[in-house]
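Help: read this over?
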Amino acid sequence: MSEGAYQRLWESSHVTLQELLDQEQPLLEPVPDRERQSFQYRLASLYLHYLGLLRGFNTVYDQMVQPQKRRLLRRLLDGVAGRVLELKDELVRADLCENPCLDRVLQDLKLTPADLEVPIPKYFLLEQSTAVRERRLILAEILSRLEPESSQKSFIGMHRTEAILLVQKAERARQGRLRATFMREIRRDEEQDRRIREDGWHKFSQCQAAITIQKVWKGYLQRKRTQQDRRTEMEFIGMLPSPNQVEHLSIISQACLWEDVRRLRQVEKEEEFRAAMVKAHDSLAETEGPDMKEKMKEQIRQWFIECHDLTGRFPDYPDASSGGSYSIFADKTPEQVRMELEMQVQENKKKEQEKRKEKGKDEKKKKKKKGKEEKSKKGEVDAVLQVLPSKCIPMISAGHEEYLNTWKNRCESIHPSQNYDSETLREEKRKEVELEIRIQVDELMRQELRNLRLVVDKEEERPLRAPKKTPGKKSGKKKEKDLTPNRSVESLYEELVISGLLRKSESVALKDYVGDFLYLGSALSLAKKLPMPSLFDIRQNVALYAVLRLGSPDIHAMAPLIRSILLVGPSGMGKKMLVKAVCTETGANLFDLSPDNLLGKYPGRNGAQMMVHIVFKVARLLQPSVIWIGNAEKNFYKRIPKEDREMDPKRIKKDLTKALRLLTPGDRVMLIGTTSRPQLADIRGLCRVYERILFMPRPDYASRYVLWKRMIEARGVQPTQHLDISALAKVSDGYTPGHILQAIQSVLTERRFLQLSKRPLVASEFLGQLAKLDPVYREEEESLKDWYFKTPLGKKSMKHRMDQLEAEEAKLAKEKKKRK
């Protein structure tokens, strides 16, 4: 895509953004619970539109070269990502489910499941690639020092005679195999000659021979045409891959090359822009700074005089924390300030008169309120659905206004230069210089005000006016006591690596967790069946709850705070893979606090406290960070089994809960637990620590089909017509992605790969390997479902479903009575 194409995409994205901002205000109005479905539909529609907008802004920001536009795009991108997370939270609250069914909304908006894919901003890894690379080098260096020299493989020497005998034995075996192959071919040729002699020679005339050859040749051509037509038809309907994959790959590689070139240009233009920013700041401070200073002084002195004339006293000077004199003269002329002062004097007089009249009215209102409260307690009030106020909308609106005022109507040539705009830069820097000079002027004018009070009014010095604080509890949380004040981050990092609590994460992309969309979610709901999340839903939830939040500090600060996630599902569902994918997509550190990994580490009563403190301290300082706890149920055992008593799995329970509470918006640290046996844990303690619980059931047919296809292709084998993937997907019901991967690895060995040209792959080859594996039985999955519906969100969901069924039964009963 050219620069003009990205410019057009930016413009169209702002048209969509304007439409979405117009739809935001009606959502703030409360909606009765009986209109829950329409409310959910509006939320889902808005969520899908914001996802598309996020995708567009991500593409434009990644490839736009102009530095000032990129700064605006970055704010918009973060704001839209934060709004997507807010809407996801609202959908969960409205639908009482972690994976609301959006198939009906997709169909109505004429979108595909690909439009539901959560785009991960590319700048997450690009902007911190240097830091991630340095961290990996440090980790590799520490791990290399830990490897003892004795661990290096020592090769046992062999005597020369033994080596010669071994080579001779191998050579004789090779010659014997060649001789056997040669003799087999001779015997086959002799057998053919014998059969020809026995049958005799068939003599053909010239005409008969020609007809026979034509018949064979025409049959061959027709079969080839039919096969080609069938392949073309199958490619057209998407049942077979395109043969032009080589050309397709070359086009993609060329496009990626151009993207890398544009990123290099971004770096060059950014360096130029930063140099121009410093130059413009110095120039404005030197040329316009003195004039600004004098104008501010005259303006403030005029304010002093007018306040003294109206009130008889000099005013209180605003404190620096409230903005200083900027809070008085922001976007106002001296005449407007004078008018405001006069209005304030008149309003103060009116307020004194009104206070006396309102005293009598307040008593009457209190009596009325008490009566209303009593009525509301007696009568049942309908539940109300309402969207919470957004933190992201003001930021998005401000960015959209800046685009409309600065960039929308700007005429650019067909091939616009990607240099910075000097006029816009000077306007921005002029405001910065003005603020810096105002701070200096405020200090001078405060001293001048003190002198005026002493000389004119002969007053004692009054304290500066500070912003009013609302009475109540003290804001802010208690800070954690630092147990390692004299330790550097580097030493703590090395200690965690040595003890095995900080590990090197494998590189796994989130898109490698393959699975298909749940196409019948709404249909199942209408049929009074509870739809289970598909692998596609699980991947999207992990992207929303973990990747988007950990990738950017701005998004994390704006989005609803989520500190912890619990992945619940049978073994083989890819829970560890998702943890590694989160670390890969965000460049996060991986800390391992699994009970099995803590055996013998940091012993004693204070050891667990020190260990958790060091882990969370390093995780905060080197964020983003993921703290993984495998077999998370062990930390909350109801009864500790005999085999686990030695490791004392519950020893970090209290310290872990305290450390999690201290995480605030902006701390990009996330606890991710994985478990396949949550029934063994105390559900209250588990749900108190883990804020989001994602249930991972067995894959459905659509996901199994995609898994078989993608995993076989990943082994370098292109599926043919001989391989019935649909049959494999049906037969493998109850098996997890881990089981499918094991079966494919067992069948597609190197030897079998070499035989593919002569003997194509068929579905029956995988059945034997699947039969050797134990599937996830329905009893095990039903046990996990029963546990999930005991969680807080699961209870709400089940209660809501029961209420719906009761309401429908009541309606049917009324209709029957009317008919009778």
